[in-house]
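User: Show me an example of a complex going from sequences to structure tokens.

Assistant: Sure. Here are the input components:
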Amino acid sequence: MEGFFQRYLSLYRPLITRMNELMSTYELSYSLWQVIFYIKNNGPSTLIDIANNYNVEKPTITRRVHRLEELQMVKQIPGMDRREKVIQLTEAGEGIYQACRKKITALENSVMAGIANDEQMITFQTLPKIQENIMRGGGSKSE
Amino acid sequence: MEGFFQRYLSLYRPLITRMNELMSTYELSYSLWQVIFYIKNNGPSTLIDIANNYNVEKPTITRRVHRLEELQMVKQIPGMDRREKVIQLTEAGEGIYQACRKKITALENSVMAGIANDEQMITFQTLPKIQENIMRGGGSKSE
DNA sequence: TGGTAATAGTTATCCATGGTAACTATTTAA
DNA sequence: TTAAATAGTTACCATGGATAACTATTACCA
């Protein structure tokens, strides 16, 4: 499958740029969206939960959450451990989640124009398999 | 196709990290590799050629080429216009291209483990269609 | 021919993201 | 009760890309 990475990677910038434009109305970027998305779909969460989910380091999530707090899309609620910072969506955050979800879904659809349904499905199912393979293949750390 | 972007994007970091590790032996990263790759496949080229091909701005390519010159993988040859800087691979650059090409192809293969051939092909063909749709969809600039 | 466009490239500066190392505060365990 | 583990933060650095303003050269054209 020579040339696959090139095809995969050359899609990245246009896509992420488009997403960021889409969300700029709400002062969000894709990286911030990820946090909102996670909390919405997994309930109030700790920074560690989020960091583990996205395979990024803690300070990265600390920063994202702080920005979201400034934007008042997210707030801290008491956990059962004074170390933990349990993060939840605010009302505003909920609203913005809905609005962005709609926009993103619309873009997801428009981007599939002219592509057969089964081709969409196969691509949809293949990407996570590739990710599995890469992550199993062992980064320089763990494994 | 809700959730498609998430699947696409969550593959990005592991992949690019893996690529960068792969090439770190030669002090290359994927962004530098792109330049080498382009020159190898299109012959001696100007910065403008390269920038246009990858849809990035000129200064971005200026920097990449300068790094490659430092690494002596690339050199300047006279063009037919004293404004132009025509860039070519050096012998060393050729060698490193070959070495990286092999490594990348091997990774491309290993990453497809357990994925049926036709699924690979469909994914391979679908990605550029999606890219087309995104780029046609008009960034905030042109169109 | 002389002067204005356009073109290729560079420099300086800024922004967005993410990583690492070293730290605090709290909790667990021995 | 002290040592280790855990959650989070802070400070700092690296990468990669964008913009704006600049130089040098070439094209155009009146």
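The lines above are the inputs; the final block is the predicted structure for all four components together. The mean pLDDT of chain A is 94.
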